[in-house]
Amino acid sequence: MSRKYFVCQGAVCQCNFGSTTDKLKVKTHTSVYLNEEQGNKKPAATTKELGQTFQNNSFGSCSKKNNNPCTVNVTQWKDYKDNQKIVENDSWLLLEDSTATCPIGGSGCIRIIHHGQVTDVHSHHFEKSDETVLQQLMPLTDTNEITNDTEDWVE
């Protein structure tokens, strides 16, 4: 069983019939956040992200519309996490392999290219790390300086 990431605001999506990508915007709830560290709050995407729920609401030119401009209209999401329900809006969390349906492109034509979560490394991640392992991974770095530093060393 492979690990699947939950999707959050800013996830990059693409339509099979479009010429470019667009970023997902979460507009349906205010209760579940991912990547909530250092003030970076990204709302989790759910099956209620329907209609025009993208930053530009376009995947460029649509080959199904003779290369006329795409107008995104999500009608349904598939392959979501069916045991992770959001009570606030009676929905389910989307996964990185979830797909969406558009009336023009059909079932599953919109896919998620990147889930939207980001890794952010801070000094407190090193506090419980084995110093010998850190020294082997970063031989030219003073690991004591990293683990004793109270400020973030990677932005």
Quick tags:
155 residues, mainly beta, five-stranded antiparallel β-sheet, two-stranded antiparallel ribbon, 11 strands, 29% strand
Q: In terms of structural class, how would the helical and strand content be classed?
A: mainly beta
Rounded to the nearest angstrom, the distance between the terminal CA atoms is 33 Å
Strand content: 25-35%
Q: Biggest sheet, open or closed, and with what strands and sense?
A: 5 strands, antiparallel
3D architecture notes:
The protein is mainly β and 155 residues long. The chain folds into two domains: 103 residues, no CATH class; 33 residues, no CATH class. The chain has two helices and eleven strands; from the N terminus they run βββββββββββαα. A five-stranded antiparallel β-sheet has the order 2-1-11-10-7, with no helix packed on it. A two-stranded antiparallel sheet has the order 3-4. β1 and β2 form a beta hairpin. The longest helix is centred in the last third of the chain and has 7 residues. It is elongated. The two termini are 33 Å apart. The C terminus is likely disordered.
